[in-house]
Every structure is written in C-alpha cells, then in structure tokens.
Amino acid sequence: NAGVMQNPRHLVRRRGQEARLRCSPMKGHSHVYWYRQLPEEGLKFMVYLQKENIIDESGMPKERFSAEFPKEGPSILRIQQVVRGDSAAYFCASSFFQETQYFGPGTRLLVL
Amino acid sequence: KNEVEQSPQNLTAQEGEFITINCSYSVGISALHWLQQHPGGGIVSLFMLSSGKKKHGRLIATINIQEKHSSLHITASHPRDSAVYICVIGVNTGNQFYFGTGTSLTVIP
Fold it and tell me: CB neighbours of A40 closer than 8 A, spacing ≥ 6?
C-alpha cells in the first residue's frame, strides 16, 4: 500500500505564474488535509477536504489559493499569481475518516 | 496567545536518556496529535490521542484532558530520535488544527 504521494517534490515558479501541487492520498483514504510550512516557521493548517467537498478552508488565504479533491484523481492545491511570500513547503496528509493522518513528503515551492 | 504551547523548545540529551516533551493547550479539543519531523523535512504521525495513554515501541504519549496537557516520552533515546517533535490539536470536531512550534531534539551518541 503506497503512502501519500505528492508531486512535484520541488517546484520553481516566477512571480505571477501559477503553481499546482498534487496530492494522492493513501488507498482507501477519503480525507485530505493541506498544510504550509513557511521558512523558519511551524506548520499551519490550510484546508480540509473530503471527496468533492471542502469541509474547512479557514486556514487558506482568501485570495489566489484554492483547493479541490475531485471524485477521481488527486487533490490539487492551486496558487495563482504566486509571490515570493508563497515560497514554502506544502504538506498533504490523508486519513480514513478523522483518524491518524499520514503525511506526504511535501512539495517545496520556490518563487523567484 | 498561541493555542498550543510546547516545552522545551530545544533539547539535547545523551544516548540512553529518558526524554519528556510537554504540550499545553488552551481550548477544547477533539484530539491531540504528536508528529515527528526529520531533518530532511519528512513528517511522521506518531500518535493521535483523545484520552489516556498510548505506547509504540520506545515512545509513550499521555494526555490529561482536565489539565489540557499532553506529554511525549522517549525511553532509551537514540541518535536516530533526533528530530523536531510537534504537538497538534484538533478542534471543532476535528476540522481545524493548531500546531505547536515544535521541540528540536538532539540525541548525542
């Protein structure tokens, strides 16, 4: 049973471009969480999704950020018009219902 | 004020020592998680607790709901335990999460 997969592992974007981060949960998991870890800071919750539903997006910036978890395929975290302050590690975790979360390896986003 | 406070921030121990990391929180929770983040950045979920005590190998996690406090213990510490340990609380029926700032542990051979 493969663990949580995230891709790409590293992503470089120029200011103003779009960043798409993908997360494939563990098999059988229908709950996905996205977290952001800014340089020299702790993890922060962004959004909690179930299949086709956003359950809680209270940690998401109001503009430029969106997330989805379609019926088929991975969960996508989308950042439009990236700025330097978006440079961070973005971690995805999945769980079976609201149980132990299993983390992916993260995507390191660097905005030039 | 942070919803989650961890102590100590940094901890250095000799191999074999018994280690305790503390986590206090100020809000009602649905569950508390302990995570381990390795120097390379990878994150492993160690425990999820809502009451009592859990043990996994050399790791023990306890929680006291009345006192809003949890501890993570490592017995017979080893250099490979060197990592950042993060306390996370889930609130609002588990929809939202607040993270402690982490405890950076270094175990010296």
Answer: none
